[in-house]
Amino acid sequence: MEIDLEVPSKEQEKLIPGSNETDDVRDAEDEIDVEDNDENPPTTSEHAEEACEPNLIESFTGCEDQVDVTTVEADVCEGTILEPQNGLEFESKEAAYSFYREYARSVGFGITIISSRRSKRSGKFIDVKVACSRFGSKRESSTILNPRSCPKTGCKARMHMKRRQDEKWIIHSFVKEHNHEICPDDFYYAIRGRNKQSGAVACQKKGLQLALDEKDVELMLDHFMCMQDENPDFFYAIDLDNEKSARSVFWVDAKGRHSYSHFGDVVFFDTFFIRNKYKIPYIPIIGVNHHFQYMLLGCALIGDHAMSAFVWLMRSWLKAMGGQAPKVIITDQEKVLNEAVVDVFSDSRHCFCLWHVLSKFSENLGCIMNQNESFMTKFNKCIYRSWTHEQFEKRWCRMVDKFELKEHEWVLSLYNDRKKWVPTYMRDTFLAGISTTERSKSFASFFDKFMHKEATFNEFIEQLKSFSLELYEVEAKADFETQNKQPELRSLSAFEKQMSMIYTDTIFKKFQVEILGVVSCHLQKESEDEDTVVFRVDDFEERQNFFVAWNKREFDICCLCRSFEYRGFLCKHAILVLQMSGVSDIPSRYILKRWTKEAKIRENLGEISNRLHFRVQRFNDLCKRAIKLGVQGCLSEEAYTIALQALEEALKHCVGVNNSAKSVFEPNILSVHGFLEIEAENRWNTTAKSSKKKKMYKRRKVHSELEEVATGQDNCQQMISSRAHTLDGCYVPQQDMQGIGPVHGLHSFSQHCIKASP
């Protein structure tokens, strides 16, 4: 027996404007054409939701309390559609409803049936609308003592389905966007009914509780304390909700913070593991070193996918990196991520990850791809072979016209965001190889072999340790080979010989490809004025003409392909022009330091000494340099012995200097900048082990801004001693910190260790 979706009352008929006798006669068993009205009177809409929801859901699914809905696979073009699309077919209204409910559950919002209609001739359903549970306007509560929660926001997200003449149901229209932050509890709230909220929803796990239990949280805190004991530059932050439950966690080790100081120009917040429903909601924060290798600049676990969670993460990460924002931020193409980046990194260039955009094609355009073999060929030509904005616009318009994609919602969103992911619009931005065709694999594909979807937190921590160790070993090996092996030259080019001494091995090989590619190009002068000559370079390999402008007075060169701006080294077209112009060496302005062997070498010690006027600043600087020494000193027994002897000798020398009667201690006056460089999170470290259980229930504010600047020697010593200073497992007591001075020659010791490493 089929249950009528309409409330049997005359008032309920008012739910659908235009639902009258004429419409019912017209929409009998013939072609159905029902207007999709977004406007519903608040009072009757609320009434419909309350009156219909429990029984209606039961009529669709057969079980009122069923939450783990079996995913309905829709066979359209031999592919499973994970997101509703107009025209998607279902065998029954129950299948269509279950599909939308499973979609709502995966995204994290509640749904409710706002209207439905039957045919007067047959009595069968012909039209059903299902919407986000926050549709309609908020109604004034009739009671002050028990006001309604989960207020209405007028959300337009909904799915409108209709029955065809062949008895099948189709999605007539689908609105994806919500006007509120997604709240996963809304799903359970809507599907269990209002009267069951306190008994059902209140006990629902939320945030990181969905992935971590109490033992996992304790394990995580133990791991953090262990890491902080090993090195005081380890940083972590925990975001707690009002119930003192962990919502999000962020951490970064000393290696990541140190690496960011050298390679912090491009940073990628990768949400691959969240988007692909991994049990552990892991977000790696990624950069690229001078060997073109991935490096970890931080890790996070996000339990709430709202904008506020990503804002918290980005702000915590920014504080860990000393407040220095990167030039470029790369994320997935998500609204909440876009809003978070605008909020935190307003001065950084925001780009979308090209791999993530391309990975969604089969999901959103699977039918087009299966029906038209030439689609991807046309698309790739439009994306990768367009060298000017005008060229891209023309090809894009022809492509959407040919495949009838003008009104496709996802394709429209791609076009509107084109400046954030299409290479043509980003060639003026250095991306360090992230989100470019330079890489065949994403970061996730490398980490995926260490982590499976259903990994427990304990397994995740162990796998992350193994992965991090492998990253460090690969980088150390590349450092050694770059410093000790000379790359093979494959031409007589003076540029090739010059850059073989400057670039790291990996980058030199990429540059070498450009050197060897010069032979496939033909040069022709197009125009010339007083200072600038414009050449046309016919590239027979690319089958494209490129224009190169060369300013001989300023030694300035620019190619249409924008290789230097985009990849960080000159292209074959510019190299050919320089050769033909009689230039013997590549100008220094076109040698990006971050790709060179000396990328990690900072300014000389004399310049640093002049800059570090205060004791705390010098202390922080020595800690960072000690980390660098430790990285090189641990690579071999010989390097370890050299580093250990150097440290012991330096310590004795400093103690002798400081104990000398001639040594005059400097007044310990702190500037605001020097004071804030002491990380607030480490103040918590000294009592961490004794108060571990209290820590789980006490809300902790990480990185709170200091309200006062302490001055004078007593305040400084108190500040310094509040940190658990550990270096190579040794605790530095407060008395040993008195009058600590600079260790001259530490840089040379580090260089000696590099030479001694295998």
UniProtKB/TrEMBL annotation:
Q: Where is the signal peptide?
A: none
Instruction: Kindly list the places in or outside the cell where this protein is found, as annotated in its UniProt entry.
Output: Nucleus
Composition-biased stretches (Acidic residues): 21-39
| Single GO biological process annotation from the record | regulation of DNA-templated transcription
Tell me if Zinc-finger is a UniProt keyword of this record.
yes
Pfam families, per database record: FAR1, MULE, SWIM
Highest taxon of the lineage: Eukaryota
Record GO cellular component, one term: nucleus
Task: Report if keyword Cytoplasm is assigned.
Answer: no
List the molecular function annotations (GO) for this entry. Answer: zinc ion binding
* Region feature Disordered, mapped onto this chain: 1-49
Known role = Putative transcription activator involved in regulating light control of development.
User: Which PANTHER family is this protein grouped with?
Assistant: PROTEIN FAR1-RELATED SEQUENCE 10-RELATED (PTHR31669), PROTEIN FAR1-RELATED SEQUENCE 2 (PTHR31669:SF280)
Protein name in the entry:
Protein FAR1-RELATED SEQUENCE
Q: Which organism is it from?
A: Theobroma cacao (Cacao)
